[in-house]
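Notes from hallway chat w/ T.B., transcribed later so I don't forget. T.B. wanted the structure written out for a chain they're using in a teaching module, and asked if we could keep both sequence and structure tokens in one place. Agreed to drop them here.
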Amino acid sequence: MAIKINREIAGDLNNPSSELLNYCISKHQDSLSRLQKLSDYYDGKQDILKRTKDSAATPNNKLLINHAKYITDMNVGFMVGNPVAYSSSNDIDQLTDAYTKVDIVSHDTELEKDLSVFGIGYELVYLKQDTKTNKTYPDIKCIDPRGIFLVTDDTIDANPLFALHYQAVYNLQGGVDYYLVKYYSDNRVLTYKATSIGVGDYELIKALPHYFQAVPVIEYRNNEEQQGDFEQAVSLIDAYNLLQSDRLNDKEAFVDAILFIRGFSLDDGDGEKLASEKMLQTTAMPSEVDASYLTKSMDESGIAILRDSLIEDIHKITNVPNMNDENFSGNTSGEAMKYKLFGLLNLMSIKTRYMVKGMRQRLELFANLLKISDSSVDIDGIKIKLKPNLPINTTDIISQIVQAYQAGILPLKVLLTWLPDIDNVDEVLKQLQTEKEEAIELNQKAMGTQAEDSHSDLEDKGNVDDNSKVQKEE
């Protein structure tokens, strides 16, 4: 998360001091334990796997049902399963081409995953050289929040001052050889080498200018609190894993229950015989002999109620529906599905506001660089739209578009945005215009051919009539 610092205390941003770098890195490392735990929960490294029992003979099954991964994957697919659409009344082909070159669709998917897991995401915009043409072009990459952060001033506007990206460089023995620290300001990229981070000095090894006219690192928020999508449900996830593990432990203990025999004793070898033959005969057996297993009673119905309650709470807290629920039947219409996904749609509306804010900063960075190469793009009128990835009845949507267009209620450019698979409305309108022109040209050619054929028929008919007259005169 962004670290705030007073602008005057920060000093010369073109030549930052070691004290400033150490302070900022130390503040960032205070949040690493939380970020690491969220990453572990998504990866399936959850607390249930660390569970121990005092007795080695006691069953200790560790069942992990990864609700954290399910919640994140559902949110990522719902948010960016349909590519983000950009539309404008101005020509933005240069910008969309630049986005296509860097595969912005895959990048947005990776970014949303970081947002869903960590509650925060970072992307770095930089210049990359094309190996085939030797030309440079703007590229973009997601950076793990555990190794990068943004520093802003302490005003209400939180203006970005610089960003720091640090990473360990390992030797062949697996140990840390040194650390690389990259410092991004609004005009320079400084690379430092350090034996440790958070303390000590930093050796400047490279200084390069950049042309983005702003700090080329963008911070995205998942929500105002910068929390992950499953962070509030971690305790519920742990409780569910524990309940399911104990259910299996109880079943295993029931199968391996101790046999309690009262009223007589077993001779040598009788225990092994009883275990193998499941029956034991004796000639002297008192009347008060009794044998039973030591087990504890299990209320399966009560456990099932608790399990269902935990599942319901997990999905309620995270606003992610249980798609295996009977409410999501195969014949549910798209419109009815929206009501069942109302909580997830509300969650998306909140996440979208913060994501679009970061995407506008991305537009500015790309536009600033394109302006240098005489490819000016007006980004003020660009509209960014995230479409939820929902089951959609395309036939009904097309019918509604046709009816609205014929009635003259809305322009075609607006109506085409209703279709889920259209990312660039202007491109579709160009294709429609091209097809209309080609159709008109074909019709004109066809009409011309028919006219020529009709004229030829008339000429042939005239020749036949003339020949008939000649024959009659003869």
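Follow-up for T.B.: Residues 1-254+303-391 form one domain. Might be a good example for the class.
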